[in-house]
Amino acid sequence: MSASQKSVVDFQDLLQRFTFDNICMVAYGYDPAYLLPSFPEAKFANAFEEVVRISSDRFNSLAPFIWKLKRILNVGSEKKLRVCATQIRDMAKEMIKQKKERSNYNKRSSDDLLSRFLISSDEQQNMHDEEFIIDIVISFILAGRDTTSAALTWFIWLISKNPEVEKEILKETTNTTTSSLTYDEVKDMPYTHASLCESMRLYPPVPVDTKEAMQDDILPDGTFAKKGTRISYHPYAMGRVEDIWGKDWQAFRPERWLKKDVKTGNWKFVPKDPFVYPVFQAGPRVCLGKDMAFLQMKKVVAGVLPRFRFVPVVDEGEEPVLIAYLTIKVKGGLMVRIEERTKSY
Predict the structure, then answer these.
(1) Predicted pLDDT at 82
(2) How do 8-10 and 335-340 pair as beta strands?
(3) What is the pLDDT of residue 20?
(4) What pLDDT is attached to residue 56?
(5) What is the rounded CA–CA span in Å between residue 164 and residue 75?
């Protein structure tokens, strides 16, 4: 509809609605229907957004005693955080209640995460209580919603500025535009996969992450980390280091992730060391949802890009303003005009 009317939409908001609906289906077996053409008010998603924003402000605060005082007094942003967190948990509890009331929630055919946890809870005589299940599923939604939408938002921006890359992706995805893409079809999309990796190198969904030493430890370079020490690493900065990525580190170049197969002449994806490219973390802490995230992103790209062209509505030379909460976003959203494609590749 937007394409036929040539209207302008906030692509970032569109993606957040899509990923929220999608992850709620996976996690709860529940469709919030936030992607309806009417774009209904997303109360559940908005509560998530507020919690993420306020929590991020905590981490970035130069005077943490201020938010701690607000928390004690239950005023301002801390009061808002408490209200939104309560809303999220109440909604989650209601979903669990509804799931339990359905006679078939504990069937082996249940596919959503919540049903599987409830099955596990029953089999282990309620070893996992309701609060624990709520924590797990909320974490799953938080991880799956914001990161994927952030990655795809910046991806669309970058390919709009690099038509040759867009053309190569279209060549690869033209024949895989069905809504039921299989894993094997997605697996054989090395150029698209490389383009997503390159986009996340420049704009990692989680731009900075922090770990805390649970006990005294020594880092690989010999640095001593005392128990309780917080250590941050910066994927956004690491993706822009000339010594690692070369003098052309500013360029959006998927080919840096690819090499030609000598026998077939086709592209072959070559992954980087995860400790050099920690977008999905590394080692024992590597993201459990990495493969699912790539599957989801590539299905979106292959299903949408061959049919539509996304043209950012910005002034000549204007760049999106980056803001970083727990995830990276475009300040004010990414406004685009959606156009139907007429050329097949």
Answers:
(1) 94
(2) antiparallel
(3) 85
(4) 82
(5) 52
* Alpha-carbon distances, residue 251 vs 152, 200, 204, 255 (angstroms): 18, 13, 15, 11
pLDDT digit string (tens) for 167-199? Answer: 999 999 876 545 556 666 667 799 999 999 999
* Closest CA relative to residue 210, chosen from 233, 179, 189, 181: 233
> SS in 3 state form for the chain?
CHHHHCCEEEHHHHHHHHHHHHHHHHHHCCCCCCCCCCCCCCHHHHHHHHHHHHHHHHHHCCCHHHHHHHHHHCCHHHHHHHHHHHHHHHHHHHHHHHHHHCCCCCCCCCCCHHHHHHHHHHHCCCCCCHHHHHHHHHHHHHHHHHHHHHHHHHHHHHHHHCHHHHHHHHHHHCCCCCCCCCHHHHHCCHHHHHHHHHHHHHCCCCCCEEEECCCCEECCCCCEECCCCEEEECHHHHCCCHHHHCCCCCCCCHHHHEEECCCCCCEEECCCCCCCCHHHCCHHHCCCCHHHHHHHHHHHHHHHCCCEEEEECCCCCCCCCEEECCCEEECCCCEEEEEECCCCC
User: Which helix (H) or strand (E) is 224 found in, with range?
Assistant: strand 224-225
Q: What's the whole-model pTM score?
A: 0.84
Rounded distance between C-alpha atoms, residue 162 and residue 72, angstroms: 50
pLDDT of residue 123: 56
Give the type of residue at 176.
Answer: T
Domains of the chain: 2-340 (1.10.630.10)
pLDDT at position 150? 93
Write out residues in the chain with pLDDT < 50, as ranges.
109, 177
> Tell me, what DSSP letter sits at residue 129?
-
The pLDDT, as a whole number, for residue 291 is: 86
